[in-house]
Design a protein that fits this description.
Length: 502
């Protein structure tokens, strides 16, 4: 019996592994003052006794197609493969058309006495059948109410005659690093396992999804623990445990939980609509790097840089422009792009909000009405396209400061690089030297530089003039708007190298 634990890439040699089940994290009650953490309690027994009945085990069954499995064939001398295959089929039968059932275990918790259960989406993804096993051993067939892959949450319902013990959500933002927590879940199918630890860190981005804001804990959690709540010392759920960093798949004391404040609105939407409804602004955003901050004369790199504005979207209607840096949204500070994505997504649909943008060094206050995000829409950094052909062009101009050659938009460049018809002017990148600042920032032949320091670049001469102007002003980099494949746009600050750099 396998645990449902898909893996995702993490910095070597660590491997981030999904847990495939539920565990509950409970923060122990202390007599701490607001200024310092309290001592651990003598025992977790009372808290565990109260919360264990609301923690459930989840068993899923999935049909595995024959193409996904096949026979385990040993290494054989040449010419023996067909003979051994015939032997295996005589021993085990021809399994070509025989479906194989795969079973996995996870965890979950009850949030409503009528039988509403919360778990991770990856616990039940692709399952043909889902069973919920209560603490007293009773098994119920579960109905999938709704699921959301971006937040990795799912809501199930079981039909019961009596009211079940249910858990309540608390304020995850109130949890502090160092607070004690308790985990209850179904590691390796053992069920009802309790472990203790502390909140190790907050606001972790583990590249699991667009809204990562995980609580990190050192409570021992393993495969089969996915989907469980994280409690504070009052017994309130402050998180849903989802993943671990591990070299072996077992606990090494680094686990991650979805904060309850992020999960609550998603769970409500899943129960009501069967899907998550998120706010949408209609912009492509990117990070404000050190180079971009320097090229714009900014004191720091806080905020989210608007790379492009979608026509007809809330941002366009509000007057937000490409090149604006969003510093506050709906009264909340935007420290970087990832935070803006979460703030916008959590904003109620059709709500009018104030948006503070930095434009040409001045703060501009705008108002936008947040729309509903569609399935294929997202507030994400601008896309980078595939590389275009790099044939040499006539009428080229070399810009040694960036390590590139550029040509005007013409019939030849339009045909060679398949430039869009609506692109009438700019400096087309025709060659990129491997040791230049342009190469370091990912520019490639076929990219078109259309703005420099927020001014339109109609020809290569305009770009050269801007480079010369920046050199005379003693600036170290130049702020450019680049149009890549599929008309995607993004900003980049290119370092200005000396002309004699080889």
């Amino acid at each position: 019996m396998n645990s449902n634990t898909p893996g995702i890439a993490a910095p070597s040699p660590r491997v981030l592994r999904w847990l495939g089940g539920l565990f509950v994290v409970l923060v122990m009650a202390t007599n701490a003052t607001p200024s310092r953490a309290g001592a651990p309690p003598d025992s977790f027994a009372d808290l565990a006794d109260r919360l264990l009945p609301a923690v459930v085990n989840i068993s899923t069954t999935t049909t595995v197609k024959n193409a996904e499995r096949g026979l385990d064939m040993p290494q054989l001398p040449p010419g023996m493969e067909e003979f051994f295959k015939d032997f295996m089929e005589r021993q085990h039968g021809n399994q070509e058309n025989r479906p194989l059932k795969s079973t996995a275990l996870g965890s979950g918790f009850i949030v409503d006495p009528s039988g509403l259960v919360v778990t991770n989406n990856h616990v039940i993804a692709d399952a043909d059948a889902i069973n919920v096993i209560l603490h007293d051993g009773r098994v119920f067939k579960a109905e999938l109410v709704g699921r959301d892959s971006k937040a990795d949450l799912a809501v199930l319902r079981i039909k019961v005659a009596e009211k079940l013990p249910a858990l309540t959500f608390g304020d995850s933002d109130a949890g502090r690093v160092g607070d004690w927590v308790l985990a209850i879940g179904n590691p390796y199918g053992l069920g009802g396992t309790v472990t203790a630890g502390i909140i190790s860190a907050r606001s972790r981005d583990i590249n699991a999804g667009p809204y990562d804001d995980f609580i990190q804990t050192d409570a021992a959690i393993n495969r089969g623990n996915s989907g469980g709540p994280l409690f504070n010392m009052k017994g309130e759920v402050i998180g849903i445990n989802t993943a671990i960093y591990s070299q072996s798949g077992g606990s090494i004391g680094i686990g991650f939980a979805i904060p309850s404040n992020l999960a609550k609105p998603v769970i409500v939407d899943l129960e009501r609509f069967g899907k998550a409804r998120r706010g949408w602004l209609g912009v492509h955003i990117q990070m404000v790097t050190d180079e971009i901050a320097e090229s714009l004369g900014l004191k720091d790199q806080h905020g989210a840089l608007v790379a492009d504005v979608m026509a007809g979207g809330p941002a366009a209607k509000a007057g937000i422009k490409g090149g604006d840096i969003i510093t506050r949204f709906d009264g909340k500070d935007v420290t970087e792009t990832h935070r803006l994505q979460r703030i916008v997504a959590e904003t109620p649909i059709n709500k009018e909000v104030e948006v503070d943008v930095l434009r040409d060094g001045k703060h501009v206050l705008l108002k936008a009405v947040v729309a509903e995000m569609k399935e294929d829409a997202d507030e994400t950094p601008a896309k980078k396209g595939e590389e275009a052909p790099s044939k040499k062009e006539d009428n080229q101009s070399q810009i040694a400061a960036f390590g590139i050659s550029v040509s005007p938009v013409s019939a030849a460049t339009r045909q060679q690089f398949e430039l869009p018809a609506e692109l009438k002017s700019g400096a087309v990148v025709t060659d990129v030297k491997p040791n230049g600042s342009a190469a370091e920032k990912g520019l490639k032949p076929g990219d078109v530089i259309i703005e420099a320091t927020h001014e339109v670049v109609k020809t290569p001469a305009d770009l050269i003039a801007k480079v010369d102007e920046a050199k005379k002003a003693g600036r170290k980099s130049l702020f450019l708007l680049v149009q890549g494949d599929e008309s995607s746009r993004h900003y980049v600050a290119l370092r200005i190298d000396s002309d004699d750099k080889k």
